[in-house]
Amino acid sequence: MDENLANIVKAYDVRGRSPEQLDAKVAYAIGRAFAEETQAGAAVVGRDMRETSEDIANGFADGVIAAGGTVVDIGLASTDLLYFASGEWAMPGVMVTASHNPAGYNGLKMCRSGAKPIGSDTGLQRIAERGSELLGAERQHNTDPDKHTTRDALPDYAQRLHQLVPLDSTRKLKVVVDAGNGMAGHTVPTVFDGLNVELVPLYFELDGSFPNHDANPLDSSTLRDLQAAVVDNEADIGLAFDGDADRCFVVDERGDVVTPSAITALIATRYLRENFGATILHNAICSRAVREIILENGGVPIRTPVGHSLIKAEMAATGALFGGEHSGHFYFSEFFLADSGMLAALHVLAALTESGDTVSALMADSNRYDASGEINTEVGDPAVAINIVEQAFADDSSATIDHLDGLTVNSDDWWFNLRASNTEPLLRLNVEGVDNRTMSAVRDNVRQLIAQENHAS
User: 0.85 exceeded by the pTM?
Assistant: First the structure.
């Protein structure tokens, strides 16, 4: 395989520096390979606001057309808007985006018809290998407008979301939304139109240079402006979206960040009110409180590995109604099994209007444990470090070990998960304990064990 393609094809998508690694030429080859893999008579193409996205989208479209297909171009879109179009129109699709990555990056998120994900085990590797063979092919620029048509999916997307989560109009909410100069600045005005909401917008101007802060809510520093704006405006809630708006983070009325685990528990509870006994998914690094709350509300919790293609496959296999990840991705069976930050946001707003309560009160039951947050450590050999940690706990009779996703060690009063990054020489550590003292002790112990990797490698 071409060395450049090998470097930018990840587990779930294509992601690299643009235009250095990913440009219209590379996109053209991948587009042709994608059309061959999916046997696409027609494909839907969407893009974010990054500087290189339009060129990459056009290159990909030309590749699909060169392979004998046609393209429906939805233009600027969030990733869940692309999933909606793929599901609603029964077409495979691609979203040109690097999600939360910095301005110098871009990427391709591909799916089959019905928004079914394409990952390394479900076609992405074959697309990359075939794309590598096609890199030398001369790009055929499409000049037939009938083969590359445009269509606006946003109004139908907004209407579908309102059907899935109707909001009680009797309570007006003041909502601060930080779009981070990303695609939520394009979708939120349409979705919120007609709702009983006073919208306070932050950074809605589409700008792929991200002049205010990176569109990455996992980085707590990017939430500071939202936290301040919620307090200053005496708002009921704050919402933050990443660059392609498929993830949503919540800030409560006091300016405190709500964990995605708490949002998972809240939305799960809403589904279980009308679907007693339903299956709900949560990934391996969600709080232990999520499983407890699902059980307490009559649900069947299933723990999954991290990663959207894995959780979507598990949702399809188990018939789960909903799934949540601690990274801020939320998955809905009634939305083509796809993840949607906007749909999650509407669920939280609906819970707020229905309860008449504050966000902090709504989430209080989920705050049962102290968590470390994700701690990333650069190591020479992640496998060696994980083995050192596992051996240190192997003889602990009070703990259980599993390898569902990386290494998870569970005890009555604490647990931790240690995973290797798919893309970098990093270990990602998440620790939770019954109190801060317990959590801190486990966290510090595991970090000291990880440090021994330097001497063992």
Answer: yes
